[in-house]
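User: quick one, fold this
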Amino acid sequence: MEIPDSRTISREGVNAAQAFFERCSCVFQEVNQQNDFGKDAYVDLGKGGTISPLCIALQIKSGESFRAVGGDYFIPVEKHASSWRHSTVPIFGLVYDPTDRLLRWADLTGYLRAHPHQEGGRIPVSREAILNEESLHQAFASAVSVYALPGGDSIAFNLLSAAELQTDAIFDAWALGRKDARYLIILRRLILDLYGVSVRRAIVALSHVGSHPDIFWTEKNWIPETVKEQVLPSFRWSPDELVHMMRAIEAEEWGRGTLGQSFDVLIYEDPDIVGKLRATVGIFFKQSEIELAVRAAALTLAHSREARQELSRLIELHPQLKEDEWFQAIADLVQQEGYLSLY
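Assistant:
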């Protein structure tokens, strides 16, 4: 399979940005995502081996196609005007020109706030705005420091806003939450106010706080123990929250390395999860969501220390479970082994 030239050039820009920031003692965290949310990476600025409290998001463009007439550059706004303008974590743009192998930068959030009616078009990037070690610690850092005020209120506001802003705020909460637990706690508390892809992103983000066995941990995504100690006590879930999250997980997304496993990491931290999962089984059956009811029953057994007794209780409460072929296979396994392991 031949890799398109555009993708190769795009990777050049991301790789150049990562190499630059890491060489300058900053932490660069690329955002891996299938959809385009207008943020390619987060960067924690640092100097001399010390990481500062300043965090930004980056939109990275690469190639001669982003060179304007006259020698300057530009970044297309496309559909991101609202999210870049209102983002809690400021968005800065980088353009990488493979001809001279230089990065040039612009403050996208600042530009759009100064132009409140712009919803598309381009944001100019001066050819003189070259990002190097000197400018990073002077003009660039000065532009970033304008946004250094706490952003908890903005995170909460955006999580309660339209879907696009919700998704942006989830990434921001995760990025900022690595240093300040309050951002992750806000995200957890507002889980019922998230919808669609936002719920899915929140499950993944919050699972970094738990003991996820299948995340390749690095210094870039590791949540410090001091933050975990503050966030984990909030992982006490109501049946309504469990139902809300499970409805966001597709049938094929249960297994190792899936969204379902990330959900399982979250509920593992709740010492009373068995009774709450048992309640979700009833909620799903009442709403005629049979497949989810069966899945919730399986999770109940997997988290129970007395799986055989729990199996009897579930069947007594919901005899219709015996009609499901998949659940019957699980029931047979529980009777034989005395426990259920889903992974």
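User: anything notable?
Assistant: The domain at 5-145 is CATH 3.40.1350.10 (Trna Endonuclease; Chain: A, domain 1).
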